[in-house]
Amino acid sequence: MRTAYVKGIADAQRVAREAVLCVAEGVKPGDSERQVCARMEREFAKARVKHWLHTPYAWWGERTRFDWRGTWETHALPTDRVLVEGEAFVLDAAPIVAGFPADFAYSGCAGGDPEAARQHRALLDQLTQLKREIVAWSASDSGSAGLCRAVAQSIEASGSDVIHTRYPARVLGHTLEGFPNWCSSAPRIGTGFQLPLLLTYATGLVLHHLLGTRYPFLNAGAPGRPQGLYAVEPHLGKGSLGVKFESVLLVDDGETRWLDPELFGEVTG
Amino acid sequence: MEPRKPALARRSSLLGDARIILLGSWAFLLQLLRSFRRPR
To answer: Which residue in A has a C-alpha nearest to residue B14's C-alpha?
Structure first.
C-alpha cells in the first residue's frame, strides 16, 4: 500500500519533471513569463493533466528573488516581463497526475553573459550541496523546525539570502501525503494556486489542531519531526539571481532519501 | 545509557495557523480576480 503510494507520487513527479525540462530547454531571451507558462500548460495537456496544486509559474530576472511587496499569490502570477540575456529564470509546476500530486521546479540562466552564467553555476553548486545535507538534517533529532533552521543557516553562511521564507506560510516544504482526497479533483479556476492545494492544507492545519495529525508544512514553526513525503523547495538568492529546486523527499522510519537524488535529475522512485 | 532525544513541540501555533488559513483564503480570492482580469 505504502509502496504503491510512493510509486504514484514518483510517477507524477516524473511527468512534472519531463514537462518542465522539455520547456526549459527552449527558454530564450525575448520569451515572456506568460508565453513560457502557456508552453508548460501545453506539455501538461499532452500528459492529460487536468487538476493542479498550482498551475505553472515562470519567474524572470529579479523576480526570481520575490523582492516584491504585497501578496505573494498575486505577484507570483506570470507576467508579460520578457527574459533578457544573462538573466536567471525559474520554472515551477505542481500538477496532479492520476490523483497523485507532484511539484517540480527548475532554475536556469539565459545565455549570452559568461559572468552571469558563472555566478548562476556557483549558486546551483550550492543547491546541490544543500540537497545532500538536507537528507542528513531530516533524519536528525532536531525536528522539522531544526531542519528549516539548518537550511537557513547554511544559506546565510555562504553569503546568500534565504528566499523560501517569502512563500506563503514561509515554507521550506509541504507534505504530499493524503492524496487523492475529497478535493483533489476540484476543477481548475484561473491561474496560480488551486482548490486542491488550498483545501488540502487548510484541512490539514485544522486536523492538526483538533486531532493532533501531522503538520502539513516544513517551516520554522513546524512541530515534531518530518515524516512521510514532502515537496521540499529551498530557494536562495544572491545579487539579482534567485535559484531553487523542488524535489520529493521521503522520510520514513529508517529511510530518508530523495526520489530524485541529483539536482534536476531523474526520478528514480 | 542512550542520550535523551531533545523534546520537540507537539502542536504548532494556533494563532499562526489561523493566520495562514485566513490570509491564504484572502490571497486566493485576490489571485482569482487578478488571473481572470488579465488575458491568459
So the answer is: A209
> How many C-alpha atoms does A115 have within 13 Å on its Cβ side?
2
pLDDT digits over A150-195, tens only? 999 999 999 999 999 999 999 999 999 999 999 999 999 999 999 9
For residue A54, is pLDDT > 80? Answer: yes
Q: How far apart are the first and last CA of chain B?
A: 63
pTM of the model: 0.95
What's the DSSP call for residue B11? S
Residues of A with CB under 8 A from a CB of B: 34, 38, 71-74, 77, 141-143, 145, 168-169, 189-193, 198, 201-202, 205-206, 208-209, 212, 215, 221-225
Q: What ipTM goes with this model?
A: 0.90
Q: Who among B6, B14, B16 is closest to A141 (CB)?
A: B6
- Encode pLDDT of A60-115 as tens digits: 999 999 999 999 999 999 999 999 999 999 999 999 999 999 999 999 999 889 99
Contact: B10, A212; criterion CB under 8 Å: yes
> Which residues have CB under 8 Å from A68's CB, separation 6+?
A75
The correct CATH number of A2-258 out of 3.30.365.10, 3.90.230.10, 2.60.120.280, 3.60.15.10 is: 3.90.230.10
Question: Does the beta carbon of B29 lie under 8 angstroms from any beta carbon of chain A?
Answer: no
